[in-house]
């Protein structure tokens, strides 16, 4: 190993040129900046800052291998320099080498800023636990740093610790009351916990402090829908796409709002924006994804083909194209596209492994689907979709492990809740709850990418709004869940029982109102561990005992478009006041019913309590 180069500091005049060159780079003059950086390097070849400046210029130009070589030279001369370590890590991040960037920043052990950068990288790596740990190290080094509190709040939010995230973000805004991003982050967490009024207050505060970015406006649209103001949300979404026409998320939000609440073609504006911006790759990709969600695969294929012609192929585009071909039934072409994407993405992308498994089921190749599902469960042992696929493959193989995994008798609960305090009986409570839920169902149709067919779903989080009736429902459901969990054993080898605790944390909560002929398509809940259906109000033909399972919950029948002729493993007839419980990876859906009286339910996804 060569001996470290002897460092050479810049002279005062060279340091001034360094600053001027850096300003030119930031002002959009990359060629001139690179020319000046090379001149400086000729004069001071052993100066770490000269090599660092060249690395920054090359990185800005997208010449990442050359940039990384320049940063390596800088680090040989100043191995402990926090700015050099930080900029070199940023270059590694741009090159997609996130773990290397994280490790490199670990060499700046005494820097709060480096620890914060590690936190951001950990979030990109989808490792919120590591992000929380890094941000706590940053806070230990800089306990009064608003940026560190903001980073910790974001990491806790990603880990699902929303109450703790809100506390951290409250500290961030207390220390930096004029920092708009901290207010926006606090508003986002309040929205997740169902505190809609508080969320709106925080987001409006961020806007008043000068944040008019597309992310904030997008969050405002969603929060206004949660607050029961769909027209205001639509107006805000239109303002967003007018002000930021290149922002893909704004067009996606507007289309989804129009789908549920509008009376015009929800895709027309998105389509026009994409055609007006043929070079906007993220916009076209978002449009293609929405078309797939809207069950328009032919249009999605056209969008991916247009992207390929303009920008060439990449793994994400191959994946999108494979999904479109698959849903069109063009199986041989889809197989080739999935194989190409698999070669590019490798075997460590869980979401892709799940998508590829769905295609393989449709092709009838359940053995390879099983192999992909097993690989996904090894990579992500808590991934609900991977377990659903593995259970399906075991069923097709006649493997008894399907019943070990799903255990449709023991792991499917059907319990009655107790009347909450203040109500004379359960029937009186259900009447009050039904009235409250009906007022929240304002959409004219179901969300574009959910299981609901011919019905509506409440937006945002149902629980946490501070509404007394909904609070009573939450407490009653939580009590029933605790009682049911108490009767279950613990089994470390089992993906559901191995995570069992006495209590749960309610993650998502919403209400569904199905109309005549309405149903839930068979699905699973990828964000949960334990899922549920609580029956609030039912039509008579659903309540009646009989041979026809109209409106019943069916479990164990896979997603319809997998093309698997498998019947349900268990049917549960609903009754008002009863709560159905099941692992989130178990396939479930409902049977259509004919009555004009709606079928009104509450659904909750839960995770084990810490």
Task: Summarize the biggest pleated sheet.
Answer: 6 strands, antiparallel
**Structural class per helix/strand content?**
alpha+beta
Helix percent band: 55-70%
Query: How many β-strand stretches?
Result: 9
* CA distance, first residue to last residue: 48 Å
Low-confidence stretches: 1-5
Q: Which outline best applies?
A: globular
Number of helices: 27
Reported CATH architecture of the domain at 413-608: Sandwich
Strand order of the largest sheet: 1-7-4-9-3-2
Beta percentage is: 5-15%
| Fold-level CATH name of the domain at 413-608 | Jelly Rolls
Radius of gyration from the alpha-carbon trace, in angstroms: 27 Å
**CATH classification class of the domain at 413-608:** Mainly Beta
Q: What's the CATH H-level superfamily name of the domain at 413-608?
A: q2cbj1_9rhob like domain
Oligomer: single chain
The overall pLDDT, averaged over residues, is 93
